[in-house]
Amino acid sequence: MSKDITDKNVNATIDANFDGKRRQVLKGIAAAGITGLAASYGMSPAFAAKKVNMGFIYVGPRDDYGYNQAHYEGKTAVAAMDWVKAVDEENVPETIEVVKTMESMINLDGTQILFPTSFGYFDPHILKTAPKYPDVMFLHCGGLWDANKHPKNVGSYFGYIDEPVYVSGIVAGHMSKTGKLGYIAAIPIPQVLRNINNFTMAARSVNPDITTTVIFTGGWANPVKEAEAANAMVDQGIDVLTCHVDSPKVVVETAEKRGVYSCGYHANQMTLAPKGFLTGAEWNWSKVYTDYAEMIKTGKPIPNLVRGGFKEGIVKSSPYGPAVSEKAKKHADEVRGKFTEGSMVVYKGPIKDNAGKTVIPAGKQYTQTDIWLESMDWMVEGVIGTTKS
Amino acid sequence: MIRIFESLFVPIAALLISLLLFAVFVSIAGVNPLEVFYSIYRGAFGSWFSWQNTLVRAAPLMLTALCTALAARIGLIVIGNEGAMVVGGLCAALVGIVLNGLAPFFVITSMVVAGIISGGLWIGIVGALKYYRGVNETISSLLLNYIAIAVLNFLVVGPLRDPATLNKPSSYPIGEANMLGMIGDSSIHWGLIFGLMTCLLMWFLMKRTVFGFSVDITGGNVRAAQISGLPVGRLILTTCFLGGAAAGLAGMLEIAAVQGRANTSLNAGYGYAGILVAFLARHNPLAIIPVAILLGGIRASSGLLQRSHELPDATALVLQGIIFVVILASEAFYGRIKWFKTKEATT
């Protein structure tokens, strides 16, 4: 079978898919026959010229009230535009399976730009697959793209989510009566530590006696341990809980059940704790994904590195819960304003870690984009816990 | 001869019944089942690309399934596949990291040996606890899974951690030169060959040797085996070792062919899926091959189901679950179908 015929058939398939006429797809494919499908393997994605064709891959379920849901919401936003075709897959493990999923999206759906969103997808899976498909762009959430080491059709995007976490810390500082906050975190990696530090410093800017107790669960999705940790913290007199795990559902629900406050993460968890939910740090992937879609539509080059916070609209705070006081709201709005205008510096010396060592001397400061902050391995004074496993 | 027909007829009938039940489920979900079946076929077996997708997913299942299947032949229900795979992968990675820089053939061989021995000893513990102390093997092997995963988590964020891996803590790499790579031009790694060979070897061992026959006798009746003078303890330990070794080899392959370093991705659920494969194959090492390919295919097609029908990923799990239950239930029909009985009587 000649290449032309194959292309035509697949084109018909894709068009029919756009219209949602699945029967037509079946007919088209039946006409092409199995050999046609086999021959279509390795074809360039150029045939989808009219529509922007995007693929999203999540490591967990779409509706986890957390990390994956945040990306799914972003995908839903781009899929709603009539000039975009967006496909997605959930529960894809960080093994060769993600390689197969990416290749399948490229070969069977004609995806031009891929968003494999889990940390573990980057090295080796994206880095090994990208050179085979130079026409496809692979954008990874959170990975550090390095111009000297990594392929040109790979890139990364991420947000300074520690900014809305800081705002949550302000609210938590105002609302806590016992002065004890609790942070349930997955593993002690730089990103997680930065959130814990921001949350603690923000709360201590309201009340310098506040402490944050940290428990690491050892994994991104450990619901049983998360619930145990949440209960243990409430038993200790902690009255505001927050977390950095894939799905904050368990922590927020446990806090509500035990009658304490909670701050959310990744997505909006207000509905899970209508009474005790204060606010939370959320991603705004809809904006990021829409921007990428428009870049492709207008033929602009896609930047390899995208970073941003409140100012760039990549992150946002969840709406305040009913319990939040006017004073807390006012203070939090003020801090958010400073982040948005770019005048807020969190890591300004003197800052000590929780072992008493000065990590940032007086007079020294690290602004948000400083690469030094991306290898953080310490926790700030006021945090109870250790990064040693 | 009639027996072979029966052992083909029952599972195929069970498979058809499960597909029928799945069709009902899909219809309730509001999608035309015929289109879904076509998508499953297209995503799993419809083209060379799909076949590669299926086979690469089937490869680790063949090895992890042996862990449950071999032990089951001697009458033990072992579900420590995930732990043995993790331990095998971890030890293989350790050996690879330490020997990195020496001749690749030597390094890879040492990694294979490390994976086999460590996985084998891991399930060997289960056999020893059972034989010497009477500890329930299902519980002990399940608990050993948690220990293995905890050890892995501890080592990759602690002593083994490569400081360059910031947000995904991982061990140091084993080195590009020591990676197994793909078979020819395909995108299937060498793990498939290891899987097929091991299944064939184990089938031969279990069905065509004195050792295998002794294992079956012990599995059928321990007292009878003891009275007839079989070394029951040695048989249990050896069988458990072989099962664990297969799962350990799966872990080694995951490191050497896919990940290149040890991290939490090693614990991706292949071990647990292997239990399912073993039961569906009725613990026959040869039957494990087609069953692993079938399950690999279902997993491979899950992506297409999500993308073309907007069904959730759980759809593939529902299909897996239905097949599992129906095939287990179908076991009751062996030897009870009149048609086969009468034919046997006439021959």
Structure keywords:
heterodimer; A: 389 residues; alpha/beta; six-stranded parallel sheet; 11 helices; globular; B: 347 residues; mainly alpha; 75% helix
Commentary on this structure:
- The complex is a heterodimer of chains A (389) and B (347).
- Chain A is of the alpha/beta class.
- Helix content of chain A is 39%, strand content 19%.
- Chain A has 11 helices and 17 strands.
- Chain A has helices spanning 3-19, 22-39, 67-79, 96-109, 122-129, 162-175, 190-206, 223-235, 249-257, 285-298, 326-341; strands at residues 52-57, 84-89, 113-116, 137-141, 154-159, 180-185, 211-216, 240-244, 261-266, 277-283, 305-308, 315-317, 347-348, 351-352, 358-360, 365-366, 383-384.
- In chain A, the strands form 4 sheets. A 7-stranded mixed sheet of chain A has the order 12-10-9-8-6-7-17, with helices on both faces. A 6-stranded parallel sheet of chain A has the order 2-1-3-4-5-11, sandwiched between helices. In chain A, strands 13-16 form a two-stranded antiparallel sheet.
- In chain A, α3 runs parallel beside α10, α6 runs antiparallel to α11 and α8 (223-235) runs parallel beside α9 (249-257).
- Chain A is globular, with a radius of gyration of 23 Å.
- Mean pLDDT of chain A is 87; it is low at 1-48.
- With 347 residues, chain B is mainly alpha-helical.
- Chain B has a domain at 62-284.
- Chain B contains 14 helices and no strands.
- Chain B has helices at 2-28, 33-44, 48-73, 81-99, 104-133, 137-157, 191-208, 210-220, 222-227, 232-259, 270-280, 285-309, 314-330, 338-346.
- In chain B, 53% of the residues are buried.
